[in-house]
Amino acid sequence: MENRFQELKDVFPGMKSNISLRDNSTFKIGGMADYFYETGDSEELKSVIKFCKDKGIDFSVIGGGSNILFSDNGYRGLVIVYKNSFGKFDPVFQDDDKVYLKIDASVLLSEAVIKISNAGYSGFEWAVGIPGTIGGAINGNAGAFGGSISDNIIEVSTYSVGEGEKVFSKEECDFRYRSTIFKKTQKHVILSGVFSFVKEDNSSVLARVKANIQKRAEKQPKHFSAGSIFKNYEGRCNRKLYKKYPELEKFSENELVPAGYLIDRCNLKGMRIGDAQIDQKNGNFIVNVGNAKADNVVKLIHIIKKEVNDRFGILLDEEIKYIGEFK
Ligand SMILES: Cc1cc2nc3c(=O)[nH]c(=O)nc-3n(C[C@H](O)[C@H](O)[C@H](O)COP(=O)(O)OP(=O)(O)OC[C@H]3O[C@@H](n4cnc5c(N)ncnc54)[C@H](O)[C@@H]3O)c2cc1C
């Protein structure tokens, strides 16, 4: 391992070894990464990835670490953080009504919301308060309050060692509810996206941002977390269940049953294993109330999946990404 590290450090002097992943996730959970590199530069990102492929070093590219559960055993390979507080926003084109901007995947989503809304461009108001980067948000088609990152996307630029740089049209990204081609195949690293925004008076845009901050404050837990653990269930439930749980009807219009509702009906809110707890307010959040281990979270996830399946015949699917080895 020492030799491997030296090899990496010789080419990339900022390379680090034995870095806590706990400190690089919003969950504050996880062991050590063998190697660790943070960059906000897309050329450097491509070089590091190519080097790893050539040398057979396992790697994982992350952004803000806000939708990840790292293993307690850490990661045997290189974790690359692609994040930049001064990431680029390049104007591509504008007409009377719209502006088209190319935004680097390394840019923090929170920074993009503020910059874009302040400029009087509408389109990212829904995203206020979501941690992480533009790259992470594109990868998982992040969304809230009826909006999602796919709403404004025109195209996405990516890199992979096999295919080099490749631009995906919106259709090719295959955006679905919390799903994309990138999340499914995990073959391409996202470098940037071109987005369209509608020009509007900035006081109206900022008023909507403010309203969403308020809504989020009411429903979002304050403890460390990785956001929603599960995707909401897409589809209708078994007909018999509508008799037993008439309130299910209200979800049938858009055929998306909130995971939080299902977890609540299983009376699981507040359940705790170690320092991991199913949030008292929002059942789809597991929170770290102290020094939770990934293993505690995994046990809670198993319990939730079993209880929801037993009661509703629904197998919940995780929204979070597991990184590292899990038993
Ligand atoms: C308090 C809280 C509230 C949240 N609220 C919401 C919400 O309302 N809506 C919502 O959708 N999500 C929400 N999330 C989850 C999370 O913030 C989003 O999913 C976010 O978009 C993840 O971005 P990230 O940069 O942190 O990705 P990470 O967590 O770092 O990574 C997530 C996945 O994306 C991949 N990835 C990251 N960057 C790239 C890249 N450049 N190229 C290719 N793959 C990449 C990683 O490999 C990993 O598989 C919330 C999380 C928290 C902690």
Task: Name some characteristics of this structure.
327 residues; alpha+beta; Uridine Diphospho-n-acetylenolpyruvylglucosamine Reductase, domain 2; Uridine Diphospho-n-acetylenolpyruvylglucosamine Reductase, domain 3; six-stranded antiparallel beta sheet; four-stranded mixed beta sheet; binds flavin-adenine dinucleotide
How would you sum up this structure, described in words?
The chain has three domains: 2-82, Uridine Diphospho-n-acetylenolpyruvylglucosamine Reductase, domain 2 (2-Layer Sandwich); 89-219, Uridine Diphospho-n-acetylenolpyruvylglucosamine Reductase, domain 3 (2-Layer Sandwich); 233-323, UDP-N-acetylenolpyruvoylglucosamine reductase, C-terminal domain (Uridine Diphospho-n-acetylenolpyruvylglucosamine Reductase, domain 1, Alpha-Beta Complex), CATH 3.90.78.10. It has helices spanning 2-11, 42-55, 109-118, 134-140, 170-173, 181-185, 202-219, 239-244, 259-265, 294-312, and strands spanning 16-20, 32-39, 59-62, 68-70, 75-82, 89-94, 98-104, 121-122, 143-144, 147-148, 153-160, 164-169, 189-199, 233-234, 256-257, 272-273, 276-278, 286-288, 321-323. With 327 residues, the protein is an alpha+beta fold. The chain is globular. Flavin-adenine dinucleotide (FAD) is lined by residues 26, 60-68, 82, 105, 130-133, 135-137, 139-140, 142-144, 182, 189-190, 220, 225-227, 321.
